[in-house]
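User: Quick sanity check before I run a bigger batch. Here is a single chain. Can you write out its predicted 3D structure?
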Amino acid sequence: MCNITENIFKTVKAEFSHDKRLTKKFNVMIKKDKKYIIGSTNIDVKNDIEGFFNDVCCAVENVVKNVNGEYQSVEIKHGKNVDLGIKQAEILDGRFFEVYCYRCSSATFVRIWLEKGLYIKKKWISIDVDENLKTLWFKE
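Assistant: Done. Predicted structure follows.
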C-alpha cells in the first residue's frame, strides 16, 4: 500500500497548518478498512483564498505526480454541490486528480474545490480523497 491519501493530507498539513492566511486550524478526517481509505478536510481562509487554493492544488499535484503509475488532472471552472437534491454551494474553482498506482494496484480520486455556500455565507476550500486499494483496473 502506497498511502496516497495519508501522504496528501500529511503534505497539506505540513505546508499549510500554520499559514497566516488561515481563519482557523483545519482538521483532517481519515478512515480506513481493508479495501478503501478516505480522507477529507475543509479549510477556511481569511484572505487570498484564490492564492491559497492554487498553492494547495500545487502541493497535492506534487504528491500525486510522484506515485509510481499515472495520473490525470482536470481543472474545474464552475459547478455546484448538490446534497439530497438541494443545491448547497457553488464551485468557483476546482481540481480533480485521478491516480493509478502500478506498485500497489490502487486507484485514487482527489477533489479540491473552492466553494461558496448558498446558506452558509462564506467561501472555503474542501479536499476529499477516495482511495480504492484493490481496483479492478489491474485485475487480469
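The first helix runs from residue 4 to 16.

User: Great, the batch can go ahead then.
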